[in-house]
Design goal:
Helix content is 40%, strand content 20%. By secondary structure, it is of the alpha/beta class. The strands form three sheets. Strands 2-1-3-4-5 form a five-stranded parallel sheet, with helices on both faces.
Length: 230
């Protein structure tokens, strides 16, 4: 049973999409805005996202960019404007396919089935191995010599975003928005608290981080150190 998140600001079309998908046996979450879509995507972990590009508030394009910080869930875009520019922008930002409005429900369903069949691309390695632990991105686990690290969902989410961008600085704002949502950005105290917990669970010397580095005033960076000897 696949779970589909529908994002559309026209109430009638949103209801119609929901009814058609449920009639075909899908579990459905409905979001009337991009803000709600990001919350539901994090909470419900959909197998596919159907996304209207023309949304009030944060745009469909911003929703795609925000999702792509942490998930490779297939995204099928609905584009009202028959504009190549919008579609190309959406595909460049990480959408998988698009359907132009107005569309036939049969055509949309066929595109969704195709997107669900497609194997999720794994550009990043499914696991990142360091000298002290292994981050299994597919299984969403961190394995230490003492067994599974007991990370909370928020801690895992932070680890995942940083590990997927290993070696690169991820700004505090990007981390907050990827993990807590687009309305966040200044709550750097959240990050300090959770990063301290993560270090306590994963770093051999939490006060002298080897893997999860703070870039003061900027953000955080994960270094996948592999050698046993410093
Ligand atoms: Ca719209």
């Amino acid at each position: 049973m696949s779970r589909i998140l529908c994002v559309e600001d026209e109430p009638h079309l949103l209801r119609t999409l929901g009814a058609n998908l449920r009639a075909r046996g899908y579990d459905v979450d409905l979001a009337p805005s991009g803000e709600r879509a990001l919350e539901l995507a994090a909470a419900a972990k959909p197998d596919l996202v159907v996304l209207d590009l023309g949304l009030p508030g944060i745009s469909g394009l911003e929703v795609i960019r925000s999702l792509r910080h942490w998930t490779s869930v297939p995204i099928v875009v609905l584009s009202a404007r028959d504009s190549e520019f919008d579609k190309i922008g959406a595909l460049d930002a990480g959408a998988d396919d698009y359907v132009s409005k107005p569309f036939g429900m049969g055509e949309l369903m066929a595109r969704l089935r195709a997107a669900l069949r497609r194997p999720v691309p794994t550009e990043e390695p499914p696991a990142v191995v360091t000298a002290d632990f292994t981050v299994d991105l597919a299984a969403q686990r961190v394995i230490t010599p003492a067994g599974d690290a007991r990370l909370t969902p928020t801690e895992w989410h932070l680890v995942e975003v940083l590990v997927r961008r290993a070696g690169r600085l991820v700004s505090s704002r990007e981390l907050l928005q990827a993990v807590w949502g687009p309305q966040y950005g200044d709550e750097t105290n959240y990050l300090r608290v959770h990063m301290a917990h993560i270090r306590r669970k994963l770093e051999p010397e939490p006060s002298r981080p080897r893997y999860f580095h703070t870039e003061p005033g900027m953000g955080y960076r994960f270094e996948p150190v592999e050698d046993e000897h410093r």
